[in-house]
Specification:
The chain has 413 residues and is α+β, with helices and mostly antiparallel strands. It has two domains: 120 residues, Immunoglobulins (Immunoglobulin-like); 214 residues, no CATH class. The chain has five helices and 14 strands. Strands 9, 10, 11, 12, 13 and 14 form a six-stranded mixed β-sheet that branches. A four-stranded antiparallel β-sheet has the order 1-2-3-6, with no helix packed on it.
Length: 413
């Protein structure tokens, strides 16, 4: 468990940031270190001039070209495959629907060769790319032995795993990395057992969430999305898309004497088997946006898969001292994008009685950290900072105790 749309061009990038070029993600959200005099602040960059960083695998990005550098396990030709698409090869499909976008017969695959000869250090510029589009590539490395994880993310000998880079937008526009996240809001959930008094009577049912309250919840998520957009130099848009299950649902077992409103309520999909299970209070499922009532733990096929999801149940518990129904607070729990090739998105779960925008930022930041881990952000000096600041410890080789201010400042990294 560790792990309103912005202005300008927001096309073409509906998938997991594990396939997003480091030049767009990590370059603009730099890591902080305790020795840094002051944490640098990401600043908006236009697409008028090339993006340059000689320390990264993708060293130069223009509107119609990219330059890459890499080492190979043994001397070999400088060569790569490239294709333009909105779908990574890791987008999960069930048997009968599986595709290999890199197959020889697949349309749009181009092999780009460098200068003659064999070498271990390679530099190659790929020209003729479409502006403002996502381009996937694989590097030629016949001497490499892909790990199981690399195979999961697209490595097929003699090619390394798939990565992606997005070209700069046409004149007057800006390329923005869009991360679609499905958010399931279970707005009316009640802990029936908590309402039973010593005399065996139950209080009047709680009021359902109103449209105005739901609008405020959505506003909280939009605040979180703006936080990421601004602090990425206006490059990273978390596109929270909402799905509302407004049925009355039960949190916990149904009492034997439940009657009337309280009898026969379906159990919430987030109920973990106990009243509260840290850190988020509940459990995780995989949301099928075509059938919100279905409790599902299996991969869901989506033509345009979501990179992440959030499950939030608004649980009411009876407070006998105040004689009213109150929403339960919680922390949050998050799994990263490790399972994306198997049809499992990054997943966060928490309850509804909290500071929603803060918790949405904090928990989705953990999904971002995982996205970065699969996007070349594997070194301490280039990663997305883990947002539980701590000094270096024997069991944690990375220092996350930078010169940060409030926790929101940590989450800006």
């Amino acid at each position: 468990m560790r792990p309103n749309p912005p202005p300008g061009r927001v096309p073409l990038f509906p998938f997991v940031a594990a396939t997003v070029s480091l030049a767009f993600l990590c370059l603009l959200i730099p890591a902080a270190h305790a020795q840094d005099p002051l944490p640098p602040v990401p600043t908006p960059q236009s697409d008028a001039a090339p993006l340059l960083d000689p320390t990264r695998p993708v060293t130069r990005i223009t509107r119609d070209s990219v330059t890459l550098q890499w080492y190979t396990a043994t001397p070999c030709e400088t060569r790569l495959q490239v294709r333009q698409s909105e779908l990574p090869m890791t987008a999960w499909r069930p048997e009968g629907k599986k595709l290999d976008p890199w197959a020889e017969s697949a349309p749009g695959v181009r092999v780009v060769n460098g200068p003659p000869g064999k070498r271990t250090y390679h530099v190659l510029t790929v020209n003729g790319l479409k502006p403002g589009a996502r381009h996937f590539y694989r590097l030629f490395d016949p001497g490499a032995k892909p790990t199981a994880q690399e195979k999961t993310w697209g490595a097929r000998a003699p090619w390394r795993r798939e990565y992606a880079v997005s070209t700069q937008a046409p004149a007057g526009r800006k390329t923005v990395v869009r991360i679609p996240v499905k958010v399931l809001l279970m707005t009316n959930v009640v802990n029936v057992t908590s309402g039973k008094g010593s005399d065996g009577a139950y209080p009047a049912p709680p009021a359902a969430m109103t449209p105005a309250e739901l609008r405020r919840v959505r506003d909280e998520y939009e605040t979180a999305a703006r936080f990421f957009f601004v602090n990425s130099g206006m490059r990273y848009w978390v596109d929270f898309q909402f799905f509302v299950d407004d049925r009355w649902q039960r949190w916990g077992d149904e009492p034997a004497d439940a009657a009337g409103f309280y009898k026969g309520l379906p159990v919430s999909r987030s109920y973990p088997g106990v009243e509260f299970k840290p850190p988020g209070g509940g459990t995780w499922t995989i949301v099928d946006t075509t059938d919100l009532k279905r409790h599902n733990d299996a991969p869901v096929f989506e033509e345009r898969p979501y990179a992440g999801q959030v499950e939030q149940a608004f649980v009411r518990k009876w407070n006998p001292e105040r004689e009213r129904w109150e929403r339960i607070n919680s922390g949050g729990g998050t799994f990263g994008v490790d399972g994306f090739p198997r049809g499992v998105p990054g997943r966060s779960q928490y309850l509804g009685g909290t500071d929603i925008s803060w918790l949405a930022v904090h928990e989705f930041h953990h999904q971002m950290e995982s996205e970065g881990r699969f996007s070349f952000a594997g070194r301490e000096d280039e990663r997305i900072v883990y947002n539980h600041p701590a000094a270096r410890a024997p069991d944690s080789p990375w220092n996350t105790a930078g010169r940060h201010g409030a926790h929101y400042d940590v989450m800006a990294w």
